[in-house]
Amino acid sequence: MSPTAWGWLVLGFPLAGFLVNAFGWRVMRGRTAGWIATIAIGLAFVCAIGATVSLLGHSESDREVTSSLWTYASAAGLDIKIGILVDPLSAFMILVVSGVSTLIHLYSVAYLDSDRGYSRYFAYLNFFVFSMLLLVLAGNFVLLIMGWAFVGFASYALISFWYRRETATKAGMKAFVINVIGDVGLVLATFFIFRELGSFDYLTVFREVPQHFSTNSGVLIAICLLLLVGAFAKSAQLPLHTWLPDAMEGPTPVSALIHAATMVTAGVYLIARMYVLFEQAPTAADISAFIGLATLIFAATCALAVTDLKRIIAYSTISQIGYMIVGVSIGAYAAGMFQLMTHAFFKALLFMAAGSVISAMAGTQDINRMGGLRKAMPITSKLMIIGALALAAFPFMSGFFSKDEILGYAIHRGGFYVIFAIGGYFAALLTAFYAFRIIFRVFWGKPVPEAQELEHGHLAHAPPENPLTGEEEDTDVGFPGEEHHIAERDRPMWLAMSVLGFLSIFGGVVEIPGLDNVVENFLAGSFLDSKLYENLPTVAADWGGLALGGLISIVGISLAYFAYVRRPGTTAALIRRFGPLYKLFVNKWYFDELYDAVIYRPLLAVGRFCNDVVERVVVQGIVAAAVDVVRGVGVVVRGAQSGFVRAYALLLIGGFAALGLYFLIAAH
Amino acid sequence: MTVTWYVVLSAVLFAIGAGGVLIRRSPLVILLCLELMLNAGNLALVAFSRAHGNAEGQVFALIVMVVAACEVVVGLGLIVAMYRRRLTLNVDDMRSLKG
């Protein structure tokens, strides 16, 4: 089969799974919906492998295969097809997306078991995977926007999945609003591209761009910046990042799938996909890289201070995506995409382990209330340590090869790009520290009551409450189910986490500098025209970067060990010493407060003004005046309706007489 | 004899009829006064028809008579119905049209 035939199948299976779960929920009992959804995504993964193998059968320079089902719109100058593009980049993405999604579906089969919205959950999840695959397989901008908006909706639906929890619905709205800002940017960029080049088709646009635009032409920079608005909103980069930490209100597997492994990396994919535009407008690419750098440092500092387990990992996600954005913006496309892949593995693993821990803690997410869970949760703790090691870029874990390859490339490019390496290594130190802050706080130390209970073989239960506000909740529809599931007891969760643990350790072997470079060689087919792709550091320089990164990682982990295990009072002393700085970090640099003051409150004031003045005085005034006029006239005229027939007759005759008189006088 | 006198007579008859309609309370008398007004009109029509030597006015007078007959039929019918139901024959007491 051709790569595109496989591609259509990749799209078809999740869509079918979604339809079955969305319409068949009445008849499905137990875990049926979960297994249907998992199998649908599993088949999509198999087809993604098929597409990749089939693509490898093509010659190196002929690996961009398109196919369209039908013409969506055809008018003067407008030609939009429902078409997909299968090339190494999109094949790589569908492999990662469908592969990680399969495992997370598998995990969810057990994790969401007691939830009353089980089928609804899997219908949403399948819809999300379909949309994400549509986004990466799209062959033109229109289909890209469609997938882009669909994943935004799926994200909204899943963040607000427990829809009777008020904080969750608010977080969903926040995510949706910020994502729509990004959608607007993307749509405007597409308008500009169509106006300039007259086409929505990727390959046509990429072919035309170098001839049509001079380097750094104003319009092209505008297009690239608008694309970046879309990318940053989706990938939670500064200043549009505020929705992602709040998105942790959704179920934990959702955080793993959408808000760590797949959807939030769409921005990285977009920049890599549009590399032709960004290489023609290097200024825009540099802006993007600097924002990525600012984000990765900013988010790492927040992750140091926040105490909510899921939110720490969320800030870590923002930070790691910052690395990817820097990578694809400075031209390290393969390294950026490789980081996307390894990050999907270890971040999904971290979230799954966090879900298991939260279950064991009866819903508590505050790491201040955790501790000593190592003995009670042997599997979860081991796997979470693997995930944290990969996140911290410990030597020879998967994250080690990917992150340091980006930074190595930055050094190699020289000039001011060295800044990215310096900032990146600094944040890597913070990353290693906060990754092991989680580990040492949760698994080391004195066992908390829940941990002791679990050691005696009993899973702690508490009345369900909102982890953010502490409000009590019931376990009816629209709230989390009453049963908790941990990896030690549920085979599907254990299996999914083990596979990801394996990949987190060994996922890096596909791209060892000087040894195999599988990712780089494979992706080269998508970057044939790139001037930066082949401009690679030497193997020795690569290993130099890796050695430095590994050293920093070990230092960071040691610092965390010292601060949290050897001398547990260290951080409290530091907080006292650097009070204002800690306050800045723990309040996430006051971004929410800033938006509250700059956007939310002024808009609210305008709304109040419209309500009090425009609505009350102007609109209601006009309406009231009209009513008064009609009523006043009525009062006057009503007097004539006396009911006396003779009075009517008098008016009639009087009227005629007056008319006659008028005409008589007028005739003279 | 000029047409003036006929017209004056017609106007006087019309005024008497209109006055009766306005002043009297009995529906029967009001009906009679209405007839008077119609016939005042008829007189004017015939007078002008004659003065101009044009027969159309006379045709109109005939039509008015037909209409008047119909009106009397309906009006008398109403009055008889009111009388039969022992309602007072006073137009001022019938004011359910009051708005």
The chain-level structural class of chain A is mainly alpha
User: What does the main sheet of chain A amount to?
Assistant: 2 strands, antiparallel
Q: Evaluate the radius of gyration of chain A.
A: 31 Å
Instruction: Specify which chain pair forms the largest interface.
Output: A-B, 11 and 12 residues
**Main beta sheet of chain B, described?**
none
Oligomer: heterodimer
What does this structure look like?
The complex is a heterodimer of chains A (668) and B (99). Chain A is mainly α and 668 residues long. In chain A, 71% of the residues lie in helices and 3% in strands. Chain A has helices at 3-23, 32-56, 88-111, 118-137, 141-159, 166-197, 202-212, 218-235, 243-246, 252-261, 266-273, 275-280, 282-305, 309-330, 333-360, 378-391, 398-413, 418-443, 449-455, 491-506, 518-523, 539-566, 570-577, 579-586, 591-638, 645-667, and strands at residues 65-75, 78-86. A two-stranded antiparallel sheet of chain A has the order 1-2. In chain A, helix 17 (398-413) crosses helix 22. Chain A is globular and about 120 Å long. Chain B is an all-alpha fold. Helix content of chain B is 77%, strand content 0%. Chain B is built from 3 helices and no strands. Chain B has helices spanning 3-23, 27-52, 56-84. Chain B is elongated and about 50 Å long. Chain B has a single domain, classed as Helix Hairpins (Orthogonal Bundle), CATH 1.10.287. Chain A binds chain B through residues 638, 640-646, 649-650, 653, and chain B through 18, 21-23, 91-92, 94-99.
